[in-house]
Amino acid sequence: MPGGGDILLGGWSLGGLLSLEMAHQLATAPSHARKFRVLGMIFIDSVSPRPLTEGRKVELPLPSAPIVRTPEEMETMKLKEKVDINMTHARMMVRHWDLPKWEGIAVPPTILLRAKENVQSEYQVFVDHTREKRMLGWEEYNAEHGNFIKDIVDVEGHHFSIFEFDRIPDVTEKIRLAADALDPSEF
Fold it and tell me: Helix or strand or coil: residue 149?
């Protein structure tokens, strides 16, 4: 698609937030530079970051500065340790990220796939701080922006288990149905 066109954006967790930011960047680009039009977005258990800074406070064990490791230290680290550092840095950035303001622009219609269960680890509760809310904390932002979340679809598992091997067929089907609902064109 080097010439541009209609696209869907989506992602799991932070990927949903990135989709929202990318859609905003594409929608607010100068008209002569716009190549892509976002038809819709699929958030896969993407929790709104707003409650982390407003309203109910959730204590997240985050460092005040990025974690720096030497190349030698990185070579000896296990993949999980590297992923944990990257996720910590991502959560630190989200804490300071401002949700896009869609002034006069419609937010692309969005479908939220939502994990049914809570995580069990106390170190991962940051993904469940709004689990009791059907829209995972997006209620206010959604209302402020034309109720862009059009549907909420439950998926089996918790935030970190929805893509386990035995759940792949079901979650894949739900993603496909969401994509078809957002872009109903026939092939």
Answer: strand
DSSP symbols for 97-111: PPPP--TTSPPPPEE
What does each C-alpha distance from 84 to 18, 62, 79, 114, 125 come to in angstroms?
19, 12, 9, 23, 14
| Mean pLDDT confidence for 121-149 | 87
**Global confidence as pTM:** 0.83
**pLDDT at residue 123 in the model:** 62
| Domain region containing 53 | 5-182
Largest CA-CA distance found in the chain, in angstroms, rounded: 52
pLDDT single digits (tens) 49-95: 875 445 444 555 676 777 778 888 888 878 777 777 777 667 667 77
Type of residue found at 96: H
Q: Using DSSP, state whether 44 is helix, strand or coil.
A: strand
53: in domain: yes
Contacts of 23 (CB under 8 A, 6+ apart): 9, 38, 41, 100, 107, 108
43: which strand partners?
A: 11, 112
Residue 84's CATH number: 3.40.50.1820
Structural domain contains residue 187: no
Residue 60 in any domain: the answer is: yes
In a domain, residue 118? The reply is yes
Confidence of residue 167 (pLDDT cuts 50, 70, 90): very high
Report the distance separating Cα 108 and Cα 153, nearest Å: 17
User: What total number of domains does the chain contain?
Assistant: 1
